[in-house]
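ok so heres the complex, two chains, lmk if somethin looks off
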Amino acid sequence: AQSVAQPEDQVNVAEGNPLTVKCTYSVSGNPYLFWYVQYPNRGLQFLLKYITGDNLVKGSYGFEAEFNKSQTSFHLKKPSALVSDSALYFCAVRGWDSGNTPLVFGKGTRLSVIA
Amino acid sequence: NAGVTQTPKFQVLKTGQSMTLQCAQDMNHEYMSWYRQDPGMGLRLIHYSVGAGITDQGEVPNGYNVSRSTTEDFPLRLLSAAPSQTSVYFCASSYRPLDTGELFFGEGSRLTVL
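and the predicted structre for the whole thing:
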């Protein structure tokens, strides 16, 4: 079975400070990993994905994520937070050998960037 | 290029009523899916389709029906609405269905069942 855990419901960070939103996963075999962002009253938007290769993945809006296989983690990071980064962030996973099984999403982490 | 279009954006139903949430995409995506979003529950998959004529159940399919007669459309039917179905519903599609393709989401349909 596939699963994703986002251990923090809420993350608060001051503008200009680095931010981290945590994600751990469980799949059989190798994972495909994704981050999505949801702004108020909008649908989810794709941020970045890890398929294979370099463990550090760069995505939209200056975000990046680091894949750590030994810790089964895929934390989202940004060196300098902006107030406009305030949103709900979702991590998602599926295994390489999962057949037609769709993505499994975490419960989401609300990021609040304070000016 | 409209992407994924959901209608209606808002709907209020009474218990026992039926309705259909519409979803259309103009990107020629093979894969389409429906999720519901509830506070503290994240996104839960209701039904999905890997192509026209093919549908399958997700995590929470009870009380919902789907069909996929064309590549573009994937309607979600509530057969007899219940208050537990009060939620925000999202339709999503992907070109490369289930491996590396990112999902494109609609803007959501907010449903209230009284």
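quick notes: The mean pLDDT of chain B is 92. thats all i got rn
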